[in-house]
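Quick one:
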Amino acid sequence: MRTTQLECFASVARHRSFTKAAEELHIAQPAVSQQIQALEQELGFRLFDRSHQEVSLTRAGRAYYLDSLSILEALDTARARGTAIAQGYSGELCFGVFGSTQSSDMQSITRFHRENPGIQLSFKRAFPKMQHQQLVAGEFDLCFTAVGHICDDERIAISGKKSSRPFVLVHQSHPLASKTSVHASELARYTHIFAEHDDRDTSSVIPPLLGENVSPESIRYAEDQDIAWLMMRLGLGVEIVPESVVSFKQEDIHALAIEGIDWELETAWVYLEDNENPALKAFLRFLD
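Output:
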């Protein structure tokens, strides 16, 4: 049984006419008759009583007609769902996230979801040391992260790139807490905490801010931002962060502008270039 046979049958049953069915389906009447005959042969019973001038359904045909309407409706639904997914209006899109401090950077997700309610959004923890492996393994479709060595992989593309001023976060007990800004030349004196650490990416942050001769002992690493807050409260160092993180600091943490530099932190959405997920393509079009 083919979809064409069901469509022909339903049209003849609805109009009680082979001629009107042919007109509705934009095919010749003999073609309609051939489809009905083929369907009846496959089913093993007659669908129409052709003994009268008007075409009428047999008892078996009436029962089959009611069931076939459900089948055709399900096929239409499946076709519409498939089309929506293929065009990026439905389906699933998974984001890799490091923590709640990224929420201000990810406001585009809220706007995208408002415009594309048919796309199911999911979120998976992205681990800084493993984000590259996670992305390549397909654990999520994309993540918002620092533009660094992850982009050295030719398979990875970026979108929505933006730059932001770096700030220094210090605990209220730190000597710098009384200031509103600090000159870049002063930063090398202090121990620095790097949250969401990737060994390679610190090499792109340290030289422009702290200079080339920073000792390893002056660098401490935190697995995530929550641990970095704790380390600052324990007096274990200060932290250089993008401006978006500043709004999440608590009252006992102070944010200082950095003077004397032109350097900015670059962040972007990163994804695999060959990812064919239509929902991802829809999100990238939205960013553009």
